[in-house]
């Protein structure tokens, strides 16, 4: 060891350049690989924490006049075909998990609860926007009915939309933004009953989250202690999706 | 140290560090940004005609120019690199403010006349090199421009990241769709600046490359140290 020349600064520089160019070559075109992907996802969790800190339920998304509504509002689902219920009248929304009073709502129950209506801008993670009118029951109203218990820090929203492999569409939310006054269980779109393309009979809607967080074709709402994932979130999309 | 043998000390370690940090980070942020752009390579609302001019509408940026592989990968890279970009930017601005170095960088109204003289010199319409401090007036204009551009890139980024929570910022840039557009324009200004910057270094003063690596300048303008 003693007679071996020590590595100089230049050698370290050269090693660094060689190593980083190899890393960059391997990195280009993919989402981080086995080496970097866990780090990227860990940083994404930090971003979620910052996003939660920036979020305030006192801050409302801007409302637009009806004249600002988009002519054609895009929609999508993960099923091979448009998810439509065979018997819409039999649809029920189950609300449970860490709550004192679990509840099952039929569509007419949901419609009989006091609704809010707003015309807001929708932000898709892809970068596009669209403006539409939504009406439905504030999530906070439903939460008050079921009375979340201790440790109910998250909410999981399930749907009857599922991809070719049977993986169901679902989302996990922080309780805070679920309780935002503009987060609703929507049953109406542009002043008409929600249509299948937009998640009939009822869907989650909120202008404070990106579109992929807004579960359509809703079947169940569960209050949980552990952070639920989500259909896209499990594949690497930012979990919070707050805007 | 004897200046005649080692030259003059030109760049502080913080300047050299943040310079090369930005070179790497901007490459990654632009590449991951182009990956994100591909998900909706237009400006304005979906399914509606847009008045925003964009020669790169629907342009499929090639794979070598993108980082992340798909939208989620691009987003995760972009939001991870944004941290050191913003923190490095604040470190650099703090350095300028703390040391007073901003005086040799910031382009002020009184630099206008020297800038014209410098341009005349470059066009060979003036024989003598105008007197200058550490940087000439054109360099000051370029470096001030790039600092402002960096700030605008970061701020428009926040504006489209949190358009509801930071609605005041998004509104400042003309709303979400326009803020996203300015964020995209910043890419081409960064690339344009880099081309001019590298060309100017190679043509006018290649010795400055050593200075931005080691800190020491041994070129033909030692009085500008």
Architecture of chain B in CATH? Up-down Bundle
Rg of chain A, nearest Å: 23 Å
Strand order of the largest sheet of chain B: 1-2
Binned, the helix content of chain A reads 10-25%
Query: What CATH architecture of the largest domain in chain A would you give?
Result: Alpha-Beta Complex
Please count the helical segments of chain A.
5
Main beta sheet of chain B: 2 strands, antiparallel
> Helix and strand string of chain B, N-terminal first?
HEHHHHHHHHE
> Given this structure, which CATH class of the largest domain in chain A is correct?
Alpha Beta
CATH class of chain B: Mainly Alpha
Mean pLDDT of chain A: 90
Task: Please describe the structure with a list of short key phrases separated by commas or semicolons.
heterodimer, A: 243 residues, alpha+beta, Sulfite Oxidase, Chain A, domain 2, 5-stranded mixed β-sheet, 5-stranded antiparallel β-sheet, 5 helices, globular, disordered N terminus, B: 225 residues, mainly alpha, Fumarate Reductase Cytochrome B subunit, two-stranded antiparallel sheet, 2 strands, elongated
Written account of the structure:
The complex is a heterodimer of chains A (243) and B (225). Helix content of chain A is 24%, strand content 26%. Chain A has two domains: 9-49, no CATH class; 59-235, Alpha-Beta Complex (Sulfite Oxidase, Chain A, domain 2), CATH 3.90.420. Chain A is built from five helices and ten strands; from the N terminus they run H-H-E-E-H-E-E-H-E-E-H-E-E-E-E. The radius of gyration of chain A is 23 Å and the shape is globular. With 243 residues, chain A is of the alpha+beta class. Chain B has a single domain (3-224), classed as Transmembrane di-heme cytochromes, Chain C (Fumarate Reductase Cytochrome B subunit), CATH 1.20.950. In chain B, 63% of the residues lie in helices and 2% in strands. The longest helix of chain B is centred in the middle third of the chain and has 29 residues, at 71-99. Chain A binds chain B through residues 20, 27-32, 39-41, 43-44, 46-47, 51, 54-56, 59, 61-62, 70-72, 74, 121, 123-131, 207-208, 232, 235-238, 242-243, and chain B through 24, 31, 36-37, 39-40, 42, 45-48, 63-64, 66-73, 75-77, 79-80, 83, 160-167, 176-177, 180.
């Amino acid at each position: 060891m003693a007679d071996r020349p020590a590595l100089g600064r230049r050698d370290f520089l050269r090693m660094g350049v060689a190593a980083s160019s190899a890393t960059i070559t391997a990195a280009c075109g993919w989402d981080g690989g086995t080496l970097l992907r866990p780090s990227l996802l860990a940083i994404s969790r930090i971003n979620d924490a910052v996003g939660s800190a920036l979020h305030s339920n006192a801050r409302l998304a801007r409302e637009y006049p009806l004249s600002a509504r988009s002519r054609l509002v895009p929609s999508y689902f993960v099923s091979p075909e448009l998810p439509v219920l065979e018997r819409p009248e039999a649809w029920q929304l189950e609300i449970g998990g860490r709550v004192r009073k679990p509840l099952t709502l039929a569509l007419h129950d949901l419609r009989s609860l006091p609704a809010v209506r707003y015309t807001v801008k929708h932000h898709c993670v892809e970068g596009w926007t669209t403006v539409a009118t939504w009406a439905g029951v504030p999530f906070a109203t439903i939460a008050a009915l079921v009375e979340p218990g201790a440790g109910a820090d998250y909410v999981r929203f399930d749907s009857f939309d599922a991809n070719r492999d049977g993986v169901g569409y679902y989302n996990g939310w922080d309780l805070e933004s679920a309780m935002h006054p503009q987060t609703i269980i929507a049953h109406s779109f542009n002043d008409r009953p929600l249509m299948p393309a937009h998640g009939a009979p009822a869907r989650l809607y909120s202008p404070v989250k990106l579109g992929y967080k807004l579960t359509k074709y809703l079947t169940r709402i569960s209050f949980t202690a552990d952070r639920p994932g989500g259909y896209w979130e499990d594949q690497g999309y930012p979990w919070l999706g707050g805007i | 140290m004897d200046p005649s043998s080692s030259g003059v000390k030109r760049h502080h370690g913080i300047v050299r560090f943040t310079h090369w940090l930005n070179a790497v980070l901007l490459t990654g942020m632009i590449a991951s940004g182009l990956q994100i752009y591909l998900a909706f390579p237009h400006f304005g609302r979906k399914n509606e005609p847009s008045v925003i001019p964009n020669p790169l509408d629907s342009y499929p940026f090639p794979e070598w120019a993108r980082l992340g592989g798909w939208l989620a990968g691009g987003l995760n890279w972009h939001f991870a690199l944004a941290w050191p970009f913003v923190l490095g930017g604040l470190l650099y601005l703090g350095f300028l403010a703390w040391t007073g170095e901003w005086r040799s960088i910031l382009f002020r109204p009184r630099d206008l006349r020297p800038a014209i003289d410098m341009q005349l010199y470059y066009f060979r319409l003036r024989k003598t090199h105008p007197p200058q401090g550490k940087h000439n007036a054109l360099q000051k204009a370029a470096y001030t421009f790039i600092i402002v551009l960096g700030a605008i890139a970061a701020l428009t980024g926040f504006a489209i990241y949190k358009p509801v929570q930071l609605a005041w910022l998004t509104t400042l840039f003309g709303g979400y769709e326009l803020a996203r557009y300015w964020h995209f324009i910043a890419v081409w200004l960064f690339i344009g600046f880099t081309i001019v910057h590298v060309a100017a270094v190679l043509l006018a003063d290649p010795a400055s490359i050593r200075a931005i690596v080691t800190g020491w300048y041994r070129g033909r303008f030692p009085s500008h140290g």
